[in-house]
């Protein structure tokens, strides 16, 4: 699945090259090139307009969620949080591209393959992290909290957790376990940023997705009441739609909603 992270890097590279980018990710192009997705991505069948629209929609959502989580991380840092955990970090380069307060420790949790690929690109680019960066090579299906603790994470201090583009790939029981484990490692004042599959996204995107594509591996959507769901896990959440955040960032969605849109696709939460 880590190859999907290279595709995300390509989207971030294209956004970085815009005249009015919502963020800048100078390493994204290097990740995409090393993964064989620069300048072009995998071709679509001739005349497949629907597939082209789906790809554009997914790319747009990646841009908006990246900006949303960047803002959340900046707010968490401003509140005094100095531990960051990126779950399923992939080609995330926030350790290198964002300004971090002194004393920030950022943990990137992922399996060996993406972390090794990423390390080779970072060496090639001579990239220097702007905070203390710690990689934790572990599968999220395994006992990752122990591996995180062994790497130096302190559950007694507040943490900001990011699960970006992750939960949609996990069955519901795995999502519940992940949230329970995060909660067990979260001191009061911890923050969390999640992206959730919006209602109907699997029907619209995954039902006829090409085998092996990212959308073909999507299995979970957000619950009907994401605020209540997260309250049950001990989090006070604010939920937003992609459409709402896109408008706030000056990138309004011109097409009408596919169906009634409920808040929840983009989530920020605080541990009380």
Give your account of this protein's structure.
The chain has 272 residues and is α/β, with parallel strands linked by helices. Helix content is 40%, strand content 14%. The chain has helices at 2-16, 28-34, 49-78, 94-97, 112-125, 144-150, 172-184, 201-206, 226-232, 242-248, and strands at residues 83-87, 105-110, 132-137, 159-163, 191-195, 235-240, 266-271. Strands 3-2-1-4-5-7-6 form a seven-stranded mixed β-sheet, with helices on both faces. Helix 4 links the parallel strand 1 and strand 2 (105-110). The mean pLDDT is 91.
Question: Briefly, what is this?
Answer:
The chain has 272 residues and is of the alpha/beta class. It has helices at 2-16, 28-34, 49-78, 94-97, 112-125, 144-150, 172-184, 201-206, 226-232, 242-248; strands spanning 83-87, 105-110, 132-137, 159-163, 191-195, 235-240, 266-271. The chain is globular and about 55 Å long.
Total number of helices:
10
* Main structural class: alpha/beta
Give the strand order of the largest sheet, numbering strands 1, 2, ... along the chain: 3-2-1-4-5-7-6
Radius of gyration: 18 Å
Helix share, percent: 40-55%
Give helix and strand order, one letter per element, not per position: HHHEHEHEHEHEHHEHE
Q: Are there runs of 5+ residues with pLDDT below 50, and where?
A: none
Strand content: 5-15%
| Rounded mean pLDDT score | 91
Shape: globular
Largest beta sheet, briefly?
A: 7 strands, mixed
State the total count of DSSP E strands: 7
Distance between the termini: 34 Å
């Amino acid at each position: 699945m880590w190859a999907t992270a290279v595709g995300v890097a390509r989207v971030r590279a294209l956004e970085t090259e815009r005249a009015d980018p919502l963020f800048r990710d100078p390493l994204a192009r290097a990740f995409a090139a090393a993964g064989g997705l620069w300048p072009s991505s995998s071709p679509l069948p001739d005349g497949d307009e629907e597939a082209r629209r789906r790809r554009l929609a997914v790319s747009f959502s990646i841009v908006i969620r990246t900006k949303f989580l960047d803002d959340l991380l900046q707010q968490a840092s401003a509140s005094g949080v100095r531990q960051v955990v990126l779950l399923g970090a992939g080609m995330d380069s926030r350790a290198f591209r964002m300004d971090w307060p002194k004393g920030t420790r950022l943990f990137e949790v992922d399996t060996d393959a993406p972390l090794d690929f990423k390390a080779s690109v970072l060496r090639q680019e001579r990239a220097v992290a702007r905070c203390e960066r710690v990689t934790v090579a572990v599968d999220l299906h395994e006992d990752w909290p122990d591996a995180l603790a062994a790497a130096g994470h302190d559950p007694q201090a507040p943490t900001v957790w990011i699960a970006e583009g992750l939960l949609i790939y996990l069955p519901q029981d795995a999502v519940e376990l992940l949230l329970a484990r995060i909660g067990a490692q979260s001191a009061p004042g911890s923050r969390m940023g999640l992206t959730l599959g919006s209602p109907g996204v699997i029907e619209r995107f995954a039902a006829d997705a090409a085998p092996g594509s990212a959308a073909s591996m999507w299995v979970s959507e957000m619950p009907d009441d994401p605020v209540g769901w997260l309250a049950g896990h001990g989090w006070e959440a604010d939920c937003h739609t992609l459409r709402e955040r896109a408008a706030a960032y000056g990138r309004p969605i011109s097409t009408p909603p596919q169906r009634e849109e409920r808040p929840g696709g983009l989530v920020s939460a605080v541990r009380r």
